[in-house]
Each structure stands twice: as structure tokens, then as C-alpha cells.
Fold this protein.
Amino acid sequence: MSEIIIEPIDKYGLTISSESKKKQLFSKIGVVGAGKEGRTIINMAATAGMEVVFLDESQERIDYVMGELQKVMDQKISSWGLTPSEKKIIMNRITPTLVYEDFKGCDLVIECTRYSESGRRSTPLRKNIFKRLEEILDVDAIIASNGSTVIISELAADLDHKERCVSLYFPVSHPDARILEIVSGMYTSEEVYHKMEVFARLIKYKPHRINESNGNVSLRMLGVMLNEACQILLERVSSIEDIEETFTIIYGQRYGIFRMADIVGIERLVTLMEAMFNDFGVKHYKPNPILWKLYRSNQLGVRTGKGFYIYDNDGNPVSFNKNIV
Amino acid sequence: MKILVLNCGSSSIKYKLFEMESKEVIAQGGVEKIGMKGSFLKFTLADGQKVILEGEILEHRAGIEYILGVLLSEKYGCIQSLDEIEAVGHRVVHGGERFNESVLITDEVIEILNECIELAPLHNPPNLKGIYAIQELMPETPQVGVFDTAFHQTMPDYAYMYGIPYSLYEKYGIRRYGFHGTSHRYVSERVCEFLGVPYEEQRIITAHIGNGGSVTAIKNGKSMDTSMGMTPVEGLIMGTRSGDVDPGAISYIMEKEHMGTNGISTLLNKFSGVLGISGISSDMREISAAIESGNERAALAMETYNYRIKKYIGSYAAVLGGVDILVFTGGVGENQAVTRRDVCRNMEYMGIELDEALNDAVHGKEAVISKPSSKVKVVIIPTDEELTIANDTIKILEKG
């Protein structure tokens, strides 16, 4: 038989032509900074069928990130959550870059940079990123920041189109925690907020509207509970094991509160709780001495292999960290 | 008179255009990877030439528009105007309890189909998208829905009810619905025509076996029981689907492997069946090759696969009080002699005597493969779901 004829489909449309073609919302999105959270976003958006461009600082970082993305998907395959051919399709949608110009055509770019491994983030750096994004993106493209501290109004302040800025928080506690906290800042327009609701649903998250406030809802509650749990521990009212079981058995949580703190990251919680303390002036936000102790000794949870628990290389807890009290 | 048959999947559309006077297929092909990178429309011309049209196909509507565009085109087309297409027949996966036969699609039908989405969240939404697209592009053309579940709506309640609290049936419609109905109906009718016996007086077991598979017990033209259940996971061992598994084992696996509902669903739908047992492939041809080279797990997968079919045939013989005709159809049923042989082996006690030489010789065409002395006629009938959909479409047009 003769060879297969291959030609472009465009001229066979009845009403579709290149001019009339409407661009689908969120067909291409961008991510600046592919740390752990950035990678989660890349993975979810690509799984949902979006083209994802991500930017990181060097080729070595990019290679590392691509490797990590593969690893997460391989883990999913080995636990029967994904097929190898699905992985191939998803990986195909992900494009790494070193230059901002490649964000051209994105409907949404999410900034997820981490200034240092200690978890602090630099506001001037992030402001700069927002500005560069504004230079490249279409006027109706959304610029978002991933985080849980009050920042979005500040980041938006210097832009020409401040209404397009929004802040997002993806809870990291476990894979089924599919609620997206969408934070409207002072300038965020209703239209942009509603578009982000659409985005949330596309990646199979339930959107929650948050009016800009430190810690949003999820982490603010966690911070206070964690402080209380640490205090109980300090006063030797009970043991780590029993406090954990109080959460898992009595309150039916998937993980205990200390395990949860390790997953979220001690550095993130300490910084956030400090910020909440400064904002609200209320003592119960002040990080407990145990948290400071872990923070200063760089025992930051799952990411560093040590926190309230000791973890193996795959991030599974091996034992409690006996040095805490 | 021309009828277009559409089968819209989650990321694909298959189509066939029939000339109904001659029952000839005058155009066929499919769109794949809708909404993904690398989407394309592929079709085969009358002379066997294969054509692939590449380009962005973001949603089903666009896919259908390109299909119509190709049918109209000077280069590859076969019609001058869309008016030549008398009607469009759609394969619809789940009709719930509301549809026991094919229907003309009206606003009311669309509303009910929307209610059925919960029962078939993966399948019904694309079916509906196809219907909407035709409504928009060919507003005057009547559309007909042909349901995978409709043929099985004749099952008696004791056959479709599960042994779980009745309130769950009332609340969520949890019961056996069965699938491949169009195929079971077609091959059971066709086999009677082929053998020259009255359809209304036969006890027939149809085994539709392919990558997915189900067995149906048909008495006097009515489906009495079928192996697929509320979803297409129950029953036979399939390419990647588990078929029957102890429900107790499922909750145990979920606990041991820390799995959620999505995880267990993927495990049972995509990593089980022949692929899961063999660890090699879901494709029976690759399994056969592996058996040749001595792979024991492949042999086990094949044996388990065949055994399960046999078990269902035995139980349906009991349901029907004996069998007159056993039909094999579907990719594997039509082509894999070894499965037919193993299934029919040692069934002489119930009147099945396979002619092994004949069985080995026939591939993918209508043929009796039992011995003349066999009380049960064992027959291969290649299925033709699209033609059945086209025939139903015509029937409904004529009726109304």
C-alpha cells in the first residue's frame, strides 16, 4: 500500500478558521521557580491537560526539576495511580526555560520562588518578577503568587494592571486536600477572581475565596493548634505519640498535628506565625519554643529528613525525634 | 439514504458514514487526542489509502466539524451537502433505567442524559458533546441515541439487584445495568438469521470478548442476565480490568496500600486483568507470543481469562435452562481459536461439541464451529455495532 498521506487539518473546518479560533482559557500557563510547591503546580496543571512552561535559574536546576517530576510520576505509576503512557503525555506538556520571553501567550503565570532554603522569600525579588512578567504577558493574563502570607497587594502595587494579581495557596497536607485558597488582594478584580475559580475546577480543586489575611484559613488554624500541641508537650502533659493519636483517632485526621507540621515545613510555619503575631499582636500566634528550636537547628520536617519525626530518603517517617523534649 | 454514526469517547471520536440502501460504509475514520498535543483526524479512503490530518482539535465540536469538513471536501469527500446525511446516530454508553430502546433525541432526552452523567461520568459527557455539536452544525438533522445499556433493560429484578441495602438502589440507582448491549443484540439477532431459526424461541449465550468483554444470557430475544454490572469492571477478566473480585479484598487492598477511591479505581480499571496477572501486556496477541516462549505468568493469565468465560457460560446455561446457541464475537472472540477451544472443552455434558479443526480454521467471519452432532450450535458472528446503530436510526426515523 502507498504511504500514509499527512497534511494539516486547518482547511477542513467549516466555521473554524485561524482568525476565528478562540483561545481556550488556561491552555498554557507558566510557573516561575520550580521548588517543591512549583513542581506540584506544574504536575497538576499538566495532568489537567494544560501546557506548562516553567522557569528556573540554571540548566542544572532544570535537569533536577525534570528528574523530580519524573520521579513523582513514577511513584504514582508504581502505586497504580497513573499509566506509563499517561505519564508520557503529561511530560510532553511540560517545557522548561531560562528566559521570561517564553511565558508569552500564557493566560496565567504563578510565581513560586524561594529566596533561600530556609524558606524566607524576598519581596523585592518577587516584585521584580511581577514587573518582568507584566512586560511580557498580554494585558488580560493573570499574575499570581503562591503563598500564605499577606503580600499580593504589595506585589501588585507597582504594576500597570494591578487588578490582574491574585494569590493562591495549594494545601500540601495530602494529595486529596484539593481545596485552592484564592486570595483576593486590594486590587484584584472580580473577573480575575472568577477566572481563578475556573482554573481551580480545571485542576480538580474546590475554590475557596479568601480575603487577604495572613495564614489564610488553613494555615492560621494549623498554627494555633500546633502551638497548643507544642505547649502540651512542653508542660509534659502528654507524649508526642498520644497527642498524635488524639488527632488521628479522636478527631479522625489523616495525620497527627506534628506530622502535619513536618509536611508543611517548620520554616514555613515559623515565618508565617511570626507574621501573624506581628499583624494581629496576639500571643497565641507566637511560635512555641519547640518550633524555634527545630527551626534554628534546621530540622525543618520532611524536606530536611528531620523534624518532629525522623524520615527515610523517601520521606516516610521512621521514628519520633527524641531530642525535642 | 445516508446515515452518519458517531461514537464519541473522552478524547476520541469514531465515525462511519453508511449508504443504507446497500448497507455499505462509504466513509470511516476517527479523531484522536482531542484537547491534547498532537491531535489528528485519521481516515481510510475507499482505495485503502490512509490519510492523517494533523492540527489543533481542542474539543469535540471542532473534531466533528473537521469530520464533516472532510466528508464535504473535494479531495477526500463523498457528499456535496450536509443535507445528504439523513440522520445521525450516536452511541450513548449509559441510559440508566430510563431507556430500554434507542430514541429520537429531543430536549427531554438530553435532560435525562444529563441526569445519567453520574452513572457514567467518563462516558456520557463526551456522548452529549457530540449531540450538542450536531445540533449546532446540522440543526435540521434528526439525531438518534443508541444505548449500550438498553438491551439489558429486560433483565428481571432478581438478576440486576446486588445483595446490598435496597436503599442504595433507591438513592443512587446501584444495580446491574450491563454494557455492549448493541453488540449482544446484533449478534444474537444475526446468528438466528444466519442459522434460519426464530429469534423469539432461542436460548442464546453471547460472548463479546475483546479488550473489554461481557457474556449475556438471552432468552426468546430478551437479555436475562449479563456479566458487566453497574460499571464495565464487573464480570470477565479483561485486558486491564479486573472483572469479579471479592469486595472484601478491595477494602483490604485500600487499607494495606493506603489507597483512596481514585487509586483503587485506577488499579482495577487500568492495571488489572490480563495485564495485571501477566505483567506483560493487555494484548492477547502479545500474551500468546509470551506463552510460546515459555512465560508462565502469561500462560496463567490466558488460563484465568478463558476459565472465567467458561464459568459465566456454565452459570448462564443454568439461568436459561439449557442453551441452543453459543455466539463468540469481539476482537478475541472472533479471532482467538485457543480461547474458544478452552472455553468449550469438556462441555459435551451440556451439549457443546466443538469441531476443533473448524475452530482453528476460522478467523473473523460468520461460521458455525460446532460438530453437526452438537446440540448447541457454536457460532462466530463478527459484531457490527455501528451498523446496528445506523439500522436503529433508520427505524426510528420511519416510525416517527
Summary: Chain A touches chain B at residues 1-2, 4-10, 12-16, 21, 24, 27, 49, 51, 79-83, 89, 92-93, 175-176 (CB under 8 Å). The domain at 218-320 of chain A is CATH 1.10.1040.10 (N-(1-d-carboxylethyl)-l-norvaline Dehydrogenase; domain 2). DSSP finds eleven helices and eleven strands in chain A. The mean pLDDT of chain A is 90.
